[in-house]
Design brief:
Blueprint lengths: L6 H4 L7 H5 L7 H12 L7 H16 L4 E4 L6 E3 L4 E4 L4 H13 L3 H15 L1 H6 L1 E3 L2 E3 L6 H8 L1
Parallel strand pairs: 1-3
Antiparallel strand pairs: 2-3, 4-5
Helix pairs in contact: 3-4, 4-5, 5-6
The structure holds zinc ion.
Length: about 160
């Protein structure tokens, strides 16, 4: 969720750590659980990821009876525009998509969005979740030889 590093978002009520974000665990309506469970079975990081993300979006919308639109756009970061009812995703990150969907569900509450997305992700992608590193509440992908990041975290 690189966009969360931006100054614009940093003022939100983010949970202070991943432990706060996932504990106590959140419970979800069964329709949503089934949607993400089915999505996980489609091997989300293989094949046409964009089509799979749209299918996930449409199924989540149906599960909650809400109708935000979602599109991919490069360069603006990922965000939810409440006025337009629009989710814009800059990447195919599943956690980011879940995070922005949670904003569509419950407004600008960052704690809710972080808790919702991380709990949902952990429940259905336990292996991927276990490989994430966290910086506060921010989920970072496993290091891929990023010199910059390594320098920062070694200190
Ligand atoms: Zn957010």
């Amino acid at each position: 969720m690189p966009r969360l590093r931006r100054g614009r978002s940093i003022r939100g009520n983010y949970p202070s750590s991943v432990d706060h974000a996932i504990n106590p665990p959140m419970t979800f309506k069964i329709e949503a659980v089934n949607v993400v469970k089915a999505f996980a079975r489609t091997k989300p990081w293989r094949g046409d990821q964009i089509a799979k993300r749209h299918r996930l979006h449409n199924a989540l919308c149906k599960a909650y009876g809400i109708h935000p639109t979602m599109r991919f756009g490069i360069g603006l970061g990922s965000f939810y525009d409440a006025k337009k009812g629009l989710i814009v995703l800059a990447t195919t990150s599943v956690i980011t998509q879940l995070h922005e969907f949670a904003h569509a569900l419950n407004g600008s509450d960052e704690e809710y969005a972080v808790r919702w997305s991380l709990n949902m992700f952990r429940e259905h992608f336990p292996l991927s979740f276990s490989r994430l590193r966290f910086e506060g509440h921010l989920a970072l992908k496993p290091p891929i030889k990023s010199k910059k990041k390594e320098d920062r975290h070694d200190s």
